[in-house]
């Protein structure tokens, strides 16, 4: 067991715990969209589009907070390979949380479908209408989703490893239940 880690900035913790259930919901909605009937598909798609737009806005905020408020240092006794893996996996998560909504928006634009948010607000297309481009983007969106799901599971496993095995304060540093004065 090592010295407990300092907490993440409050804004970073808030955005983390706000986004975590949204990203998980999006992954399961996406899975549901692949294997459902037409009426349920329309409902899931109506949820998927604005939720994706919300995640895009939140991840941009999250990146800004991350750049403004550096995360706390990892425990000094953490092996260098694990340090590199932690840094790379966090930036991969950010990249995927950014790429998923952008690839979905681009895919729908290429298909000629509007991205309609709440109250009929439509986002402008970001790609030209092109069936081949749509097919490519659809495949990319699918594979990015699988990579996001795998990366999320590894992130969860690492958090549990730090919290239950190492007990080094890394999990607690992002915990919303963290008490002041305790590390």
TrEMBL record:
The chain crosses the membrane at residues 12-34, 40-61, 91-113, 143-165. Gene3D superfamilies: Transmembrane di-heme cytochromes, Chain C. Keywords: Cell membrane, Electron transport, Heme, Iron, Membrane, Metal-binding, Transmembrane, Transmembrane helix, Transport. Residues 10-176 form the Cytochrome b561 bacterial/Ni-hydrogenase domain. It comes from the Bacteria. It is found in: Cell membrane. Its cofactor is heme b. It is a multi-pass membrane protein. SUPFAM superfamilies: Transmembrane di-heme cytochromes (SSF81342). PANTHER family: BLL0291 PROTEIN, CYTOCHROME B561. Belongs to the cytochrome b561 family. This is Cytochrome b.
């Amino acid at each position: 067991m090592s010295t407990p880690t300092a907490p993440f900035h409050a804004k970073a913790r808030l955005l983390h715990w706000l986004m975590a259930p949204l990203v998980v919901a999006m992954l399961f909605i996406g899975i549901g969209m692949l294997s459902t009937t037409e009426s349920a598909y329309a409902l899931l798609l109506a949820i998927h589009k604005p939720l994706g737009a919300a995640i895009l806005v939140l991840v941009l905020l999250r990146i800004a907070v991350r750049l403004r408020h550096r995360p706390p240092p990892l425990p000094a006794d953490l092996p260098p390979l694990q340090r590199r893996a932690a840094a790379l996996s966090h930036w991969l998560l950010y990249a995927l949380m950014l790429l998923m909504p952008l690839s979905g928006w681009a895919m729908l634009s290429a298909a000629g479908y509007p991205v309609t948010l709440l109250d009929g607000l439509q986002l402008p297309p970001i790609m030209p209408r092109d069936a081949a481009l749509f097919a490519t983007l659809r495949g990319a969106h699918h594979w990015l989703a699988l990579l996001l799901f795998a990366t999320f599971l590894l992130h969860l496993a690492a958090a549990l490893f730090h919290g239950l095995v190492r007990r080094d304060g890394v999990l607690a540093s992002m915990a919303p239940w963290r008490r002041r004065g305790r590390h």
